[in-house]
Each structure stands twice: as structure tokens, then as C-alpha cells.
Write a structure and sequence with these properties.
The protein is of the alpha/beta class. It folds into two domains: 147 residues, Rossmann fold, CATH 3.40.50.1100; 215 residues, Rossmann fold, CATH 3.40.50.1100. It contains 16 helices and 15 strands. The strands form four sheets. The protein has a six-stranded mixed beta sheet with strand order 4-5-15-10-11-14, with helices on both faces. Helix 4 crosses helix 9, helix 9 crosses helix 11 and helix 14 packs across helix 15. The site of pyridoxal-5'-phosphate (PLP) has 19 residues, from strand 10, helix 11 and helix 15. The site of pyridoxal-5'-phosphate has 19 residues, from strand 10, helix 11 and helix 15.
């Protein structure tokens, strides 16, 4: 087991100021206690099923399969969850854990606002106070999500430091946690940050691969040949991979946002262009400039433009167990349009990155092979931006 004390090979760890140590130790102890607690797990399953709408469907995309003319393609429909994406899996788990720990207040960072909305949703459900840190730039670009968070009872604090985007919101949330550990849980949004977050978030998202495995065995009587998902910080991808890591015959593919291309600065493809570094409490790969400063990243998909990748992915890359491929804006937009037309499913532009890579590999695979693509979220939120990309103003 390469995972010990929050390490994934050389990655992970707890690179944090002394002032944050007590908080992560308290969280680790609580998590170790509750993760095997039957009552905790029964309550979480109840929330997943009754509130979030799990299990999500594993849908055989027959038209897509026929049109691409190769491997049989299944879609894991995380877009059908309450709030429209996989993020609810993580926030329900963390909110329940925080509640058990006696915390009354959730704080979170958010980029595009999706994780902020999910956290505000869980806070409303559990009767907890909620404060969301969001880069000021992002609050302007994502006014609808700011409105939703406030509607759900959360306070949204615009962050003006740095580039006033996601990475600055993470830094600000960590600072706030240091100041108020007693009543506050930091509900981190992806498989990143200091240990134990990458493990906790992965375990809550692992329900995705647990279900895929059961559903696939029921439908096809065997395991898939490929499972694939888009990668921002990497939570829906690790959730999709987790229960297949030991099944060496199953290929694991993570699709990164290449933006305008991996040979430009306008990219967010961390594995393709990043270097080893330490940031946000963890050792992993990060997009950096020539001085080792975190580089500004770009993708058409706001949910994928994080300059790093979770430490477990960095390790799966190092060991060759998983493959990571870059997908450009243009390829993702084409996949967004293609899946909408062929299956009547409008995917999140993040998820469209995975669909785009499937469009490349499926035609080359034999017809008896099986690919599972996780559709991490639904695309309603992206329609205005994609229309604009295509030169049409539907001003939302
Ligand atoms: C946030 C988000 C992502 C990226 O986050 P991961 O932690 O990499 O999963 C992907 N898809 C959707 C729909 C999202 O909202």
C-alpha cells in the first residue's frame, strides 16, 4: 500500500503552518473514528439515496456507440444527482462528519461556484452556518451561483488577493480555518490540500466506482476495459477510478483541460505541463512559471482551471497505473455539442473533456470492448458560455 500517513508515493503530506496542525489532526482523528462507524455510514447512505438521488444511472449510450463505431460506451450519470454534479457526494459526507464533530459552521472555497453551491446546499439541509470564499473575479463571472449561495443562506466573501480567483480563495479559506477551528469545519472541494483531505474526499467520491462496478457486473457480467473522467483537482476522476485500481486489466484515463493547447501558456493541463512542487499544503504537480511560482491557468471550463492535481493522481501517474491526456477547449466544445445531439444529454463542459477523449479512442477499439465515461455534471450552467464561444450572444 503506497498510501501511508497521507502520502501517495512522494506526493501528498501536510505542508502547513503550525497553526493549522491542530485542525487537521482533529479532523483526521474524527474521520478515522467515523469512517468505519455503522451509524455514520447508514446516515450517509440515507442522504445519498434519499436526498442526492443515488445510485446514479449507468446508462448504455447506444446511439453514441453506433455512431462512433467501436467500443460499447456507458455513461455514469453523476449529472442526475441533486445540484447537478458529483460534488454533492463530497459535501454531504463532510457536512455529516462536521456535524458529528460538533461543528456548527462550514466554510468553503469555490472557483466557478459549483462547490460553493453544493456546500451551501448541505449547510442548509443540516442547519449549519455557511461562509464561502470566492475570488472577486469569479463572483463577477458567476453571478448566478453567488445568488444561489445567498438564496441557500450562505455568506459569500469576495477574495481580492493574488489573481482573485480559485487558488486565492483556497488560501483565504485556510487562513479563516486557522482563526476559527473551534466551531468551524473547512469543507474542501476536491482531492487536494493537506492530509487527510485527499483521502476523505476520495472516500466520499468512491461511491461512483463502487456503483459502476456493481452496475457493470449486473448489466454485462464483467468489468469495463476503460473507465475515464475529467480532472480538475481530480475528485470525480478518483471516485471513478478508486474501486478499479487493483483491477489491473481496467485502464484508467484522466482527461485534463488543455485550454488553447499544452504548447501555450493558456492551459490547465497539470500532468502534461506541470512540475513537482508544494502548494496548498501538499506535494504534487503544479503549473509553474520559470521561477517556480504558481502559473495562472486557463480553460474554457471554470471547474477545471486549478493549477494543481490531487496527490493520488500524481502518484497514479508516476506509477503508470493511470493515464492522463490533455483535451483542448475546441475538442471539449465539439464533444459538448456532439453528446447533446446524439444522446439528448447536455454534459457539463468539464465532463465534455472526457467525452472528447472517448470520441478519439472508441472508434479504434473492438466492438466487444467497454468504456465507461463519468458525466460529472450537467451542462445547463455552460450553455451561455458555449454559445458565446460559438459567436452567439444569448445573454443570460
Ligand atoms: C468541479 C467540477 C469538476 C472538477 O472537479 P474534480 O474535483 O476534478 O472532479 C468536474 N466536473 C464538474 C461538473 C464540476 O462541477
Amino acid at each position: 500500500m503506497a498510501e501511508s500517513r497521507g502520502r501517495f508515493g512522494i506526493h501528498g503530506g501536510q505542508y502547513i503552518p503550525e497553526t493549522l496542525m491542530n485542525a487537521v489532526i482533529e479532523l483526521e482523528e474524527a474521520y478515522n473514528h467515523y469512517k468505519d462507524d455503522p451509524e455514520f455510514n447508514a446516515q450517509l447512505t440515507e442522504l445519498f439515496n434519499e436526498y442526492a438521488g443515488r445510485p446514479s444511472r449507468l446508462y448504455y449510450a447506444e446511439k453514441l456507440t453506433k455512431d462512433l463505431g467501436g467500443a460499447r460506451i456507458y455513461l455514469k450519470r453523476e449529472d442526475l444527482n441533486h445540484t447537478g454534479a458529483h460534488k454533492i457526494n463530497n459535501v454531504l459526507g463532510q457536512a455529516l462528519l462536521a456535524k458529528k464533530m460538533g461543528k456548527t459552521r462550514l466554510i468553503a472555497e469555490t472557483g466557478a461556484g459549483q462547490h460553493g453551491v453544493a456546500t451551501a446546499t448541505a449547510a442548509a439541509l443540516m442547519g449549519m452556518e455557511c461562509v464561502v470564499f470566492m475570488g472577486e473575479e469569479d463572483t463577477k463571472r458567476q453571478a448566478l451561483n453567488v445568488y444561489k449561495m445567498r438564496l441557500l443562506g450562505a455568506e459569500v466573501i469576495p477574495v481580492t488577493s493574488g489573481t482573485a480567483t480559485l487558488k486565492d480563495a483556497v488560501s483565504e479559506a485556510m487562513r479563516e480555518w486557522t482563526n476559527r477551528i473551534s466551531d468551524t469545519h473547512y469543507c474542501l472541494g476536491s482531492v487536494m490540500g493537506p492530509h487527510p483531505f485527499p483521502t476523505i474526499v476520495r472516500d466520499f467520491q468512491a461511491v461512483i466506482s463502487k456503483e459502476i462496478k456493481e452496475q457493470m457486473l449486473r448489466k454485462e457480467g464483467r468489468l469495463p476495459d476503460v473507465v475515464m473522467a475529467c480532472v480538475g483537482g481530480g475528485s470525480n476522476a478518483i471516485g471513478t477510478f478508486y474501486h478499479f485500481i487493483e483491477d489491473k486489466e481496467v485502464r484508467l484515463i484522466g482527461c485534463e483541460a488543455a485550454g488553447r493547447g499544452v504548447d501555450t501558456w493558456e492551459t490547465a493541463a497539470t500532468i502534461a505541463t506541470g512540475k513537482l512542487g508544494i502548494f496548498h499544503g501538499m506535494k504534487s504537480y503544479f503549473c509553474q512559471d520559470e521561477y517556480g511560482q504558481i502559473a495562472p491557468v486557463y480553460s474554457i471550463s471554470a471547474g477545471l482551471d486549478y493549477p494543481g492535481i490531487g496527490p493520488e493522481h500524481a502518484w497514479l501517474h508516476d506509477t503508470g497505473r493511470a493515464e492522463y491526456v490533455p483535451v483542448t477547449d475546441e475538442e471539449a466544445v465539439q464533444a459538448f455539442e456532439y453528446l447533446s445531439r446524439t444522446e439528448g444529454i447536455i454534459p457539463a463542459i468539464e465532463s465534455a473533456h472526457a467525452v472528447a477523449h472517448a470520441m478519439k479512442i472508441a472508434p479504434q477499439m473492438d466492438k466487444d470492448k467497454i468504456i465507461v465515461i463519468t458525466v460529472s455534471g450537467r451542462g445547463d450552467k455552460d450553455c451561455a458560455a458555449i454559445a458565446r464561444y460559438r459567436g452567439e450572444d444569448i445573454s443570460e
